[in-house]
């Protein structure tokens, strides 16, 4: 789960990280009032969307008068911003963060990430901040510093000092830098975050270290014990299909294809999508219904897949290990009868009680296409999809 910049900054501030004064605005008049409350002569009006690279997309405006603040707010509110992280669909800005201007002497990059490969938390920093870290990593990898932290031990003072030195900070800033770095680590650890990024972390003209931007992502599986964090969720920034799946306990990722997938097990789901691609099709989604694919859960998964109007055919691929094929088959038949499917359905069952499961599908009298192997199922799904597309084109003609 991601949160907005202003929310991440509020969290970091509570852990001793210095931030610029700012306020939230939902209208142009709100934005002007926030600028008046902050005072000064320069303000940054920032679109609040779950994406980086907002500046390149025109989502950050520097203003020097209240009229400019109002104009910036008028421009940004309701605007769909498209960045390399949002994809072509973009994300709509529904709120703004108005922040005081800052006298910036230097820009740095700083981040904590959970690195599953090393089973460590990695602290990443660079003295070259204010630009895309992907670009920096590709062209100047030597400028990026990584320090690995054992979760069982935690961040040590010497590691924080090592990062501060790597960021080329002056000796008089060392104590403040260590406090900032340790505050960020505590926020990551205490709140079950899996990512905390500050880009840029700036050094002001007066020598202060300030988080000018902030992003945080949290482990969905830990939200049950992080109620305050869970309440920060902004569903308007999420894919409605993925949001609906998460609310129903399903693992779903929306894709751009037109062959819907319902599979149990993440590995089998990935293999199924690969086979669909190999057969010449495009998967519309990743959907793992898990081991307990009951009739009720199966129906929810069907409705979720079919809610995508781009889906032209649906493939169900189940390997019954801790489950049973006859139970799955009964759930599929019941779901199809309730939903009244209008597109081809291909079902491939394997594992425990597979013969009984296939018998239930065959004797249901429903127009369900069956397959014995994954390759056969993928090929039949692509063929069924092609027939639907051909019919749609003929109808249009």
Write a short abstract of this structure:
By secondary structure, the chain is an alpha+beta fold. The chain is built from 13 helices and 18 strands.
Layout: helices, strands, pairs:
Blueprint: H1 5-14, E1 22-25, H2 28-38, E2 43-47, E3 60-63, H3 66-76, E4 80-81, E5 91-92, E6 96-100, E7 104-115, E8 120-126, H4 133-139, E9 145-149, H5 157-166, H6 174-190, E10 193-204, E11 209-211, E12 215-218, H7 227-230, H8 240-247, E13 251-254, E14 259-263, H9 266-278, E15 285-288, H10 295-306, E16 313-320, H11 325-339, E17 345-351, H12 354-363, E18 368-371, H13 374-396
Helix pairs in contact: 2-3, 5-6, 9-13, 10-11, 11-12
Please state the structural category.
alpha+beta
Q: Strand percentage, roughly? A: 15-25%
Mean of all residue-level pLDDT scores: 89
How many helices? 13
Taking Cα atoms only, what radius of gyration do you get, to the nearest Å? 26 Å
**Biggest sheet features:** 6 strands, antiparallel
Task: Tell me the helix content.
Answer: 25-40%
Shape: elongated
Q: How would you describe the oligomerization state of the chains in this entry?
A: single chain
Number of DSSP-assigned strands: 18
Low-confidence runs (pLDDT<50, min 5 residues)? Answer: none
Q: What gap, in angstroms, lies between the N and C termini?
A: 45 Å
């Amino acid at each position: 789960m991601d949160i907005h910049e202003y929310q991440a900054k509020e969290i970091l501030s509570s852990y001793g990280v210095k931030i610029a004064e700012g306020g939230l605005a939902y209208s142009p008049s709100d934005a002007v009032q926030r600028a008046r409350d902050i005072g000064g002569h320069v303000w940054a009006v920032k679109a609040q969307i779950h994406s980086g690279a907002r500046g390149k997309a025109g989502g950050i405006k520097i203003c020097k008068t209240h009229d400019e603040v109002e104009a910036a707010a008028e421009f940004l509110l309701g605007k769909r911003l498209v960045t390399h992280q949002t994809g072509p669909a973009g994300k709509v800005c529904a709120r703004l963060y108005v922040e005081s201007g800052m006298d910036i002497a230097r820009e740095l990059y700083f981040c904590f990430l959970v690195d599953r490969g090393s089973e460590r938390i990695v602290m990443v920093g660079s003295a070259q901040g204010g630009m895309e870290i992907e670009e920096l990593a590709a062209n100047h990898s030597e400028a990026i510093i990584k320090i690995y932290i054992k979760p069982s031990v935690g961040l040590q003072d010497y590691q924080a000092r090592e990062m501060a030195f790597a960021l080329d900070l002056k000796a008089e800033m060392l104590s403040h830098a260590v406090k900032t770095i340790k505050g960020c680590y505590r926020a990551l650890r205490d709140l079950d975050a899996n990512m905390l990024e500050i880009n840029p972390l700036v050094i002001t003209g007066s020598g202060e270290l300030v988080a000018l931007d902030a992003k945080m992502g949290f482990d969905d599986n830990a939200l049950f014990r992080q109620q305050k964090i869970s309440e920060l969720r902004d569903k308007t920034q999420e894919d409605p299909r993925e949001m609906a799946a998460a609310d129903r306990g399903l693992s779903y990722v929306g894709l751009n294809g037109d062959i819907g997938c319902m599979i149990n097990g993440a590995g089998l789901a990935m293999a199924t999508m690969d086979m669909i691609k190999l057969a010449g099709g495009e998967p519309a989604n990743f959907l793992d219904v898990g081991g307990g694919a009951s009739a009720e859960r199966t129906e929810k998964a069907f409705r979720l897949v079919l809610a995508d109007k781009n889906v032209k055919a649906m493939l169900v691929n189940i390997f019954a290990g801790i489950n049973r094929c006859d139970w799955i088959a009964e759930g599929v038949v019941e779901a199809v009868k309730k939903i009244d499917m209008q597109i081809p359905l291909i079902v491939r069952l394997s594992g425990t009680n597979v013969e009984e499961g296939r018998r239930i599908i065959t004797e249901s009298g429903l127009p369900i296409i069956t397959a014995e192997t994954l390759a056969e199922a993928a090929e039949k799904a692509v063929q069924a999809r092609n027939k639907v597309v051909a019919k749609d084109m003929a109808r249009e003609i």
